[in-house]
From TrEMBL:
Name of the molecule in the record: Decaprenyl-diphosphate synthase subunit 2
Organism, scientific name: Ornithodoros erraticus
Any one of the GO BP annotations: isoprenoid biosynthetic process
InterPro entries: Isoprenoid_synthase_dom_sf, Polyprenyl_synt
MF (Gene Ontology): prenyltransferase activity
A GO cellular component annotation in the UniProt record: transferase complex
Domain of life: Eukaryota
Pfam families xref list: polyprenyl_synt
Length: 151
């Protein structure tokens, strides 16, 4: 049922975008949806030899940033702003999403009331940075031995 509801909302969003009369917006939002789906493949630890901050940023750009940044760009397109201003809006949306995701992922390590009893995402920035300096942890994560990791 959830998948059908999501499909309904996507179809309505694309229909509304088409009615605005700026066909390139369909491409922008379609690319954002494609990026979101790609994030699940790009973010798979079993498929990489090493992780670092650039790997995290790429994964996060696909998963989180692309949709927000595309929304910012689309707003400037509807407003009739120049291509340069559209590109700036896209970069602004991307950096806001990166900042939000960084805050969200580090909060669980800094706020004990927030993190009590939670499982950590092994692809979060603090864990990725730790794995960058301790590559043996990546091997444990790839083998599914996450419960044995000590941070």
């Amino acid at each position: 049922m959830t998948v059908l509801a999501g499909d309904f909302f996507f179809s309505k969003a694309f229909q509304t975008t088409t009615n605005i009369g700026i066909p390139v917006m369909l491409h922008i939002f379609g690319t954002a949806v494609e990026d979101y789906v790609r994030s699940y493949f790009e973010g798979d630890l079993r498929q990489v030899d090493a992780v670092d901050a650039m790997w995290w940023e790429t994964k996060t750009n696909f998963k989180t940033c692309s949709l927000l940044a595309s929304g910012y760009k689309a707003a400037t397109m509807v407003g009739g702003l120049s291509q340069q201003e559209q590109d700036r809006a896209y970069q602004l949306g991307k950096h806001i999403a990166l900042a939000f995701q960084t805050y969200h992922e580090t909060k669980q390590f800094l706020d004990t009331s927030f993190s009590a009893g939670l499982n950590y995402d092994v692809t979060s920035l603090p864990v990725v940075l730790h794995m960058e300096t301790h590559p043996e942890l990546l091997k444990c994560a790839q083998e599914g031995k996450v419960d044995q990791l000590k941070f």
